[in-house]
């Protein structure tokens, strides 16, 4: 029996939610299609009518989450450009978004799969490319005197902060979310305002 077109979005949502739960708790490779079907309350055949396999499900999850996060980060950059949001407030909000990762276990599974699956890796790389553009905008707003090389470094710094804060629970953090976001934003703002010379190029 095929899935009626009007029922596909609902079925897809149930399958994806089941995948999020099981991939996080059991791991990607330890989760069988039959497990997904049972948790989602659908048949295995119904899943295969929507996805080619587990790899395509995790790709769908990555793309969905990436689109949401890119939109959030880009909104902050646009608000800074239009001066409707103070720079420090934008940095604080960026920290909040980084700390909003609800399922670190699933995130680690996705990152691991990215090293095995080129499609997942490309999606994450594309997400980071969008992040870099928004982060560069924030860095330029903080300190317009930053050189191109320093802006490249600022992208790396902000990207590292975003990834690190999103996976901080295993490090037994000593600060709560509010203190972390405020302090991290202040430190990043101060760091971007430092007058640092570009390092010498190779062979110089």
SSE string:
HHHHHHHHH
Low-confidence stretches: 1-6
The helix/strand class is: mainly alpha
How many helices? The count is 9
Number of strands: 0
What proportion of the residues form beta strands (DSSP E)? under 5%
What does this structure look like?
The chain contains nine helices and no strands. It is mainly α and 204 residues long. α1 crosses α6, α4 runs parallel beside α7 and α5 packs across α9. The longest helix is centred in the N-terminal third of the chain and has 28 residues. The N and C termini lie far apart (70 Å). The N terminus is likely disordered.
What is shown here, in short?
With 204 residues, this protein is mainly alpha-helical.
List keywords for this structure.
single chain; 204 residues; mainly alpha; elongated
Produce the secondary structure layout:
Layout (H helix, E strand, L loop, with lengths): L7 H18 L7 H8 L3 H7 L3 H28 L5 H12 L5 H11 L3 H25 L5 H19 L10 H17 L11
Helix pairs in contact: 1-2, 1-4, 1-6, 4-5, 4-7, 5-8, 5-9, 6-7, 7-8
């Amino acid at each position: 029996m095929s899935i009626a077109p009007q029922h596909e979005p609902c079925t897809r949502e149930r399958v994806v939610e089941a995948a999020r739960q099981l991939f996080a708790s059991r791991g990607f490779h330890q989760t069988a299609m039959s497990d997904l079907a049972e948790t989602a309350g659908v048949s295995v055949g119904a899943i295969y009518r929507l996805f080619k396999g587990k790899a395509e499900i995790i790709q769908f999850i990555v793309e969905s989450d990436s689109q949401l996060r890119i939109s959030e980060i880009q909104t902050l950059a646009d608000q800074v450009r239009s001066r409707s949001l103070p720079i420090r407030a934008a940095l604080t909000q960026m920290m909040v978004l980084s700390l909003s990762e609800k399922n670190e276990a699933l995130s680690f599974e996705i990152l691991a799969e990215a090293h095995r699956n080129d499609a997942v890796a490309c999606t994450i790389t594309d997400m980071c490319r969008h992040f870099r553009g928004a982060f560069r905008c924030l860095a330029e707003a903080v300190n317009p005197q930053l050189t191109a090389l320093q802006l490249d470094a600022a992208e790396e710094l902000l990207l590292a902060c975003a990834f690190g804060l999103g996976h901080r629970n295993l490090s037994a953090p000593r600060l709560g979310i509010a203190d972390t976001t405020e302090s991290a934003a202040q430190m990043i703002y101060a760091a971007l305002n430092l007058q640092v010379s570009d390092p010498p190029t190779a062979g110089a």
